[in-house]
Structures are given as structure tokens and as C-alpha cells.
Design brief:
The chain is α+β, with helices and mostly antiparallel strands. Helices cover 53% and strands 8% of the residues. The protein is built from 19 helices and 13 strands.
């Protein structure tokens, strides 16, 4: 958005130069409509908005920052944008003496001698400014350079020899502008000679000044003798010594505060230096907390490993104190990760990440194995709950059937669960695959899916949803040695891992057998069979119609084949193969037995309505009904028997099954012959007589 007002313009400033903190008055145009309009103020490149005091649109009072050299004054307003200036301000630093107070830190390394200490006599500090290092005089009529001109020639420099940015060119132009080249050469020789004398040491000085030193000693001895002659009381020298000690104590008292502040400043500076140098450790507890809140666990682990390698064995108390706080936060972080790892509903990737984090944090124990053990217990608990819930629901439904029958109320409320496995259109025929009275059919099958079929759908969903992740997690436990250096793998747990997976698969298969093939569990102890679940019966024929047989067999086969893809040759998968094979066999035998029963009852449906044609002559409805039963049975058997999936054995690979299937097929044809014989030699039934309908259920013999 374009600014609404003209940009601000600075036309005057007073004073025009000064050290940091100088109070200046800025004048100009369009400096803001009110204090909130002023959003920025830079003096010599430093932000001074916090100290700015807006007076009017043409006047601002502010204090300068630590800017150095000549620079611009740039105001920024909300509605005018960034301004400009026609004047500037020059900032400089004053040399603070040892007795002057300062609000900012002053580096005294260049101005205060390092050997200055308490209670120790020190030599007088010579005034360096009064002594010319070149030893020449500056005489001449040429005007000297001003400080502004020198600043323009030597940016960020100074003519003060005690500062780090000392410039020799600045010093020569300021003090020896009129000196000739020969004078400068003589001054250089003088400076070298003085430097050589300082480097030769005290012995050389004494050797070169031996005569004056001896004269001084003679003079002092003469003064001492003269004092003794004039000393009437005899203790004059002692009084002089006392006075000198008093003068020394007074001098120490005068400088005690200054030297104390210097010591405190040195201590503060050292502490700040340590904090700055080891800021990683001092900031680490707070950084750990922040990174945990953001979910950046890798950063937490990397910082902890770095701190551990640097400060785990430190002897410095402050470092040990901070490191103990780091360890405390890492322990809490480790406990949090372990608690999250116990949640079995985490995805496989999340579990792998949590295990990796705990291993990196040197968790005591084996987090991967604990996760596998917890996952197995959770899977078993899911299967148990699924079985118990459906058995309880089956009991409630049977109780509802009995109650409705006793009250002559045949209407059922639909269950809230949606039928996941609708019957095919081929099963809607008027045959024994739905061979119930119209009243019972309306009261039961129209409104709900059989509970055992819902049980099959739920328990297979649990296995397909959770067991593959459990199996992959177990495989990664034994293969992570390649990716994680230093990780020791307990190879003795291979057998334990296979046993845990076999337990889950076996429990799943036994739950299914207890619901559909209870006779196959006869070899198990009675107590164990009760744990697998005792499905209730209504006292009548079982309520699962043959129309649902392909549905639950299809679910079992799909579940078995998808789990077999994980480990086709594993011991646990053999249990699944046997379960699917037994379910297919039972379905085939049940469908054939139901078809035989339906054919035996065909004589009740013969209406003796003869249809004639040129090819077959006169025929009744009986042959068409027989053909319909056989075709539908073959259609279902085609899916169950002939269509083999990968890793599935042939259903007729076992000789006893092949023989029994042959016998049942023969009985199917014989049943039709018996039906025709009964129609020929038995009197017809009255049309008002109810038609007999027979129902063969799972595992029920004829």
C-alpha cells in the first residue's frame, strides 16, 4: 500500500557530534502526525527508536546509540515511509579514565597497566600524551587538519596510540604536519633507540647510568647524616617512616574502591565470557524442552549426545550442576517415549521411530522386545474381546427370539451394523438354501446378518489390520543390526519370536473353529475348549443358512492368503492353511448334504402342471427344480473347490475327502430317483397341506 503522507525529511540536528547516549534534538518536516506514527529512527546506522521522544511533526528528541563515525539520521513513519536527511551526526568514543564512572563496559586493557594491584607499590604512570615518541617539535605556519577532515581520510581510525584502531598516518598529520622528511627520519632513529633501551633491561640501564646512581646514593647518605645531626629527639626517622606509611594507607584507601570495581568488572567479564563460550550447555535444558514440545526428537538426541561427550566427566561444579539438570530432563523424555511405545495403536513407523529414539538414549532394557511382547498381548486381548462380544450378542439374540416367540411377536428390530456380505442374486431362489417359512424368514434373515458371520468379518479384520505390522516389527528386530551400529541382537530370541506369532495365529484359528468347526477341537482339554468360547444354541436347528457358507469361507481364505504372503513357509502359517482347508471341506460337504435334502423334498413341490412341446413332449416342473438345485450347488462348489488360490492345496488331494465327496454326489442322484419313485407310488398330498422344508446346517449330519 502506498504511503498516505510525504516522506519525512531531517533538516537540522543539535548537537552535531557526541559520544553514545548524547541527547540530540532533531528538526525537520513530516516527522509524524503523533507518537504512534513514528515507527523507526536510525542514527549512524543504529536503531534509536526506544529512546526517541516525539514532540511534534517537526521536532524529535532522542539519544544516540553506539554508532561510530559520521552517519545519517533516518526517521521512518507509518504513513510516510522511510525518510531522508540533509545533515548528519558524528559519533565518537571518549577515553574513560580509571577514576571516571561509566554506564557501559570499558576495555581497560589498553589504558590500565596489568600489574596494578592492591597493597603493592607501583611506579607512576607517565603521561604518554605529553611525551612525543619521535622526539621532534612541530614548528610551522601551515594550518592543522580538523578532526572532521581526518575522519574523512581515515575511516574507523584514531590518532590515540592507546586504542586498537590507532593510525600512524592520522598521528603524523595531526602532530607533525610541518615536519620535513629528514626530521621524520631522525624521529624514527630516536624511537628505535628508545625501544632498544627498554628491551635491554634494568642491568643495562644501571651500567649506562652508574655514575649518576652513585651520586644519588652519596646524596641520600649525606641527607641521612644531616637528618641525624638535626634530630634532637632521636626519633625523627621513625616519625618519617610512620608518616610515609600513613600516606601509603591513605593512597590505598583512595584507590580501594576503584580497584574493587575493577576486580568485580573482571569477574563479571570472565563469567560472561564463560557463559558465551559454553552457551550450548547453559541453554541446553531450555532447548530440550522446546524441541520436545515441537516434536523434534532427533535434535534433542543429537544435543544430548554432544553434551554427554563434552561434559559427562567434567570436574567444574557449575557444569556438573547444569549437566545434572540435562540428565533429569532426558530421563523424563525417556520415560515419555517409553510410555508412548506401550500404546499398541501406534503405526509401525511410529513404533520404529520410538524404538530408535530409546536405543539412542541408551534405555535400560530392550525397548524393541518390550514393544513386541506388549503388541502380542494386545492382539490376544483384541481377539478375546471380539469373541466374548459376539458370543454375548448371540446369547442376547437367542433370548430375544425366545421372548418374541412367547409373546407371538415376530417383528425384529434391525441391527445397527450394516450387512457387509450380502447374498448373491443366485441365492434368492425359492429352494432349501433359504428353506424357512415365510414368517420366520421375515422375522429373522431379512433384518440381520447371522452373528457368526459378523464374528468372522470382525476377527479377520483384526488380524489383517494388526498382525502384518506385528510380523514386520518382529522381522525388523532381527535385521536392525545392519543399520544400527553398536546394537547387540539377542539371537536366542528367534525361537521365542516364532512361538509368540504362532500363539496368535493358533488362537485366531481356534476361535474360528470353536464357532464353526467345534468337532475339530475334540482333542483339546475341556477347560481349554471353554476358554475358546462356547457358542449358544437355540435348541432348534442352527440359524446359519447355507446361503452364508461361501461368505465366511471367502473371508477365511482371503485372510489366510494375505497372511501367508508374509511368510509362506513359516510354522505359524501352516495353521492357517489347515484352517482354510478344513473350512472349504466342511462347506463342500454341507452344501452337498443340503442339496440332497432339498432334492428329497422336491415331491412336495410337484404341482402336476404338464407343459408340452415338440422336443420333449409333456413335462412337469420337477425336472426344472432339480436342475436349479444342482446348478446352484455346482456354482458355489466352483468357488470353494475348484478356484484354488496361491499356496492353497487341492481339496481332493486327500483320498478320504475324495471318496466322501463321490458318495455324496451319488446320493444326490439317488435322492432324485427316490423323489420320482415316491411320486409314482405314493398318493399326492393335498394342496392345502403345508410344504415341508428341510434345513441342513454346518457340521450337522443327515
Amino acid at each position: 500500500m502506498a504511503p498516505k503522507n510525504p516522506p519525512p525529511l531531517v533538516t537540522g540536528v543539535s548537537p552535531k557530534e557526541g559520544p553514545p547516549g548524547t541527547r540530540i534534538t532533531i528538526r525537520g518536516e513530516n516527522l509524524g502526525d503523533d507518537p504512534r506514527d513514528l515507527i523507526g529512527l536510525k542514527i549512524c546506522g543504529m536503531d534509536c527508536l526506544l529512546s526517541a521522544e516525539w514532540k511534534s511533526s517537526s521536532k524529535i528528541i532522542a539519544r544516540t546509540g553506539p554508532g561510530k563515525g559520521k552517519g545519517d539520521i533516518i526517521p521512518i513513519t507509518r504513513f510516510g515511509g522511510k525518510g531522508s536527511c540533509t545533515v548528519g551526526f558524528r559519533g565518537y568514543f571518549l577515553q574513560i579514565g580509571p577514576l571516571q564512572e561509566s554506564a557501559v563496559w570499558i576495555d581497560e586493557s589498553q589504558t590500565v597497566r596489568p600489574n596494578l594491584d592492591h597493597g603493592r607499590p607501583t611506579a607512576a604512570i607517565a603521561a604518554k600524551e605529553e611525551e612525543d615518541p619521535l622526539g621532534i617539535l612541530d614548528e610551522g605556519d601551515r594550518p592543522k587538519f580538523t578532526e572532521e577532515e581526518l575522519l574523512e581520510l581515515f575511516l574507523e581510525a584514531s590518532g590515540n596510540m592507546s586504542l586498537e584502531n590507532f593510525s600512524p598516518g592520522w598521528y603524523l598529520l595531526e602532530h607533525h604536519q610541518n615536519a620535513s622528511f629528514e626530521d621524520l627520519k631522525a624521529g624514527l632513529s630516536y624511537m628505535k633507540r628508545k625501544a632498544g633501551q627498554r628491551s635491554e633491561g634494568p642491568i643495562t640501564i644501571i651500567r649506562s647510568n652508574l655514575t649518576p646512581i652513585l651520586d644519588c646514593l652519596d646524596s641520600l647518605s649525606a641527607m641521612y647524616d644531616k637528618y641525624n645531626e638535626d634530630d634532637i629527639r632521636g626519633n625523627c626517622m621513625n616519625s618519617y617512616a610512620v608518616l610515609l606509611m600513613q600516606a601509603k594507607s591513605c593512597a590505598d584507601g583512595l584507590f580501594q574502591e576503584v580497584l574493587g570495581r575493577k576486580d568485580k568488572a573482571d569477574s563479571t567479564r570472565n563469567a560472561l565470557s564463560v557463559i558465551q563460550k559454553f552457551r550450548f550447555l547453559f541453554h541446553l535444558p531450555l532447548n530440550i524442552q522446546r524441541n520436545i514440545q515441537k516434536g523434534d526428537y532427533n535434535m534433542v538426541i543429537n544435543d544430548y549426545e554432544k553434551a554427554k561427550s563434552l561434559f559427562a566427566e567434567t570436574e567444574i561444579k557449575v557444569f556438573r550442576k547444569v549437566y545434572r539438570e540435562v540428565e533429569r530432563r532426558i530421563n523424563n523424555f525417556r520415560d515419555m517415549l517409553h510410555k508412548r511405545l506401550k500404546d499398541p495403536q501406534n503405526t509401525l513407523d511410529e513404533q520404529k521411530k520410538l524404538i530408535k529414539y530409546l536405543v539412542s538414549l541408551e534405555y535400560k532394557g530392550d525397548p524393541a522386545w518390550e514393544c513386541l511382547d506388549n503388541k502380542q498381548k494386545w492382539l490376544i486381548e483384541l481377539l478375546d474381546d471380539c469373541k466374548d462380544d459376539h458370543i454375548e450378542e448371540e446369547k442376547n439374540l437367542i433370548h430375544g427370539d425366545n421372548l418374541a416367540s412367547s409373546q407371538n411377536n415376530s417383528q425384529w428390530k434391525p441391527l445397527s451394523r450394516i450387512n457387509k456380505s450380502p447374498t448373491k442374486s443366485g441365492l434368492s431362489r425359492e429352494s432349501s438354501f433359504s428353506s424357512m417359512s415365510s414368517t420366520d424368514q421375515h422375522a429373522t434373515w431379512r433384518y440381520r446378518t447371522p452373528q457368526k458371520v459378523l464374528f468372522i468379518e470382525d476377527i479377520t479384520d483384526i488380524m489383517l489390520q494388526h498382525f502384518p505390522d506385528y510380523w514386520k516389527l518382529g522381522q525388523s528386530y532381527f535385521t536392525r543390526e545392519k543399520s544400527e551400529k553398536g546394537t547387540k541382537i539377542d539371537t536366542s530370541k528367534h525361537g521365542k519370536m516364532k512361538q509368540m506369532m504362532t500363539e496368535v495365529i493358533t488362537l485366531f484359528a481356534n476361535y474360528v473353529r470353536a464357532a464353526f468347526l467345534p468337532d475339530s477341537l475334540e482333542n483339546l482339554p475341556e477347560a481349554e475348549r471353554k476358554k475358546l468360547g462356547m457358542w449358544p444354541t437355540s435348541g432348534k436347528q442352527d440359524h446359519i443358512s447355507c446361503s452364508w457358507l461361501p461368505t465366511y469361507v471367502r473371508n477365511i481364505r482371503n485372510c489366510s492368503n494375505r497372511l501367508l504372503m508374509l511368510d509362506p513357509h513359516g510354522d505359524a502359517m501352516i495353521v492357517l492353511n489347515e484352517l482354510a482347508f478344513d473350512m472349504r471341506t466342511n462347506c463342500m460337504f454341507t452344501l452337498l448334504k443340503q442339496a440332497i435334502s432339498d432334492v428329497k423334498c422336491l415331491h412336495t413341490k410337484e404341482m402336476w402342471l404338464v407343459e408340452t412341446d415338440d422336443e420333449y413332449g409333456g413335462t412337469t416342473q420337477l425336472p426344472a427344480l432339480f436342475e436349479n438345485i444342482v446348478n446352484e450347488t455346482v456354482q458355489h462348489l466352483h468357488e470353494v473347490v475348484i478356484m484354488n488360490k496361491p499356496n492353497e492345496p487341492e481339496i481332493f488331494s486327500q483320498r478320504p475327502i475324495q471318496k466322501e465327496a463321490t458318495v455324496l454326489c451319488s446320493q444326490l442322484l439317488q435322492a432324485f430317483a427316490q423323489c420320482m419313485e415316491q411320486l409314482v407310488f405314493s398318493p399326492p398330498l393335498n394342496k392345502t397341506e403345508s410344504q415341508l422344508k428341510v434345513k441342513i446346517t454346518i457340521g450337522q449330519e443327515m
